Amino acid sequence: MAVAATMVFSIGGASSCSNAPDGAQPPSSERPDPVASSREAPNQDLHATSSVHPTPSSVTPRWPGLPSGWTLVAAAPDRYTTDHDALMHDFGQDVAMAFGAGGTPVVAWASLTDSSNSVYTISATSFVTETGWSSPVEVARARLAPGPTASLFTMSGAIAEGVVALAFERRDDTGFSAGVDVMFSTDLGRSWARSAAADGEAYHPAVTVGGGAMHVAYASAEGYSVSSAVLPPRSRAEPPAPIDGTQLAWKVQQLPALEGFTPADKQPSVALDNEGRPAVASISAGADNTQVATFVHVGDRNAAKAIELAGNPGGVSSVSLAFAGTRAVVSLAIEPRAQAGVLASVASSDDGGETFNAAQPVLDGLNERAPFGIGLVAVTPPGGQTVSTATTTAPKPAQFVLNFEPDMFKDTSSRCGLPRLVYSSDLSSWTECGAGTDVVSPATAVIPANLTPSAVAGPDGRLYVPVTNRNPSAPLPVGIVLWRA
User: Fold this and answer.
1) Does domain 2-484 have CATH number 1.10.530?
2) C-alpha–C-alpha distance, residues 382 and 52, integer Å
């Protein structure tokens, strides 16, 4: 596989380039957090639609006032501007985003509020065209266990159902796992209801919403499972109505294991295919410590399908799954320094997951590592966009985008901001750049503070990247910020 030695990112029909500079900054956990310029950036040639957020043809984006480039979503409470340690270690440890009724964006984040008991407060806000981002509301308080490659919570939304949901571990007073809870909203994040998706030992939940149901994949001592609940039906003409979380009937299905392998205690990834069926990608380990990705459609009685890693690179820190039409793509983040010069491995299936090719390495031209995992999102142009040659006209191909925060970043000014975006339409040649489209330097770059990377494909055909800004002296205030392509 090839990665361009010179980074090229198409911006409004033009390309900006910079050679990979020398020099590096300390790991992100130890370095100060500067932030990018808040200057509005031109629309970038990354148009996105997500299989996890299906868009009815009648949906019109409701936020024409939301600019491209970086914007402030929610300022941090005053206490974080005067307490540097709390700002660096407590605020906005995880950030996620989803789209609700009418294509309205909802952003949520988790902050540590009681360090002695590992209690986090999850907050949320939504964007309204007339008034901008709403005042943040408290979604839940919960004991959570942060990890380098597992999210504190995961989030998904379905425009057709008008539901936004987030999932997290439930822990008892002693800190032991007691199940998985789902918080969901039908009024664009203004109020939230709770439902118990699973009871007993359950870890690392991942949620997706769509096709009239919610699905939560998670790990346990017995392996991987999926808990699903059907949402009350409603017509498209009706506004989303409140749902009583205690009345949802969750059905748990144990996923088939891969023969000869043991499911790993790592976060699975769940997504809906082009027919609305949930599928799960996860990680399993063999007796010789060989690690493979596994793929299975929920409800499929056949054994899980193995996705082998070319070259046996060793440890795998995270796995992600995305669909674009009938194409399924699984990415595996390689443990830092387990295989020099490799950022991730990617496998694809052109028949919806029935068969996969062997995962091939994505070479890392910047020589950066991704210790906090790698996100994956399917990026598809809006309908009607085509690419013409001398003899044919075909739909513009989908792109698959990996996003991550490197453990080291270059200290020379460039046009590749953070988080890094690595994208390809053929899964063979990859281009690397970043979310910041203005010229950036270590003094003006957004340095993501999320535990895990987050990127979402919007119904308006744009890519969204929510992160935490912790630099009080930067042009953007301390708080939750969002980059829109």
Assistant:
1) no
2) 16
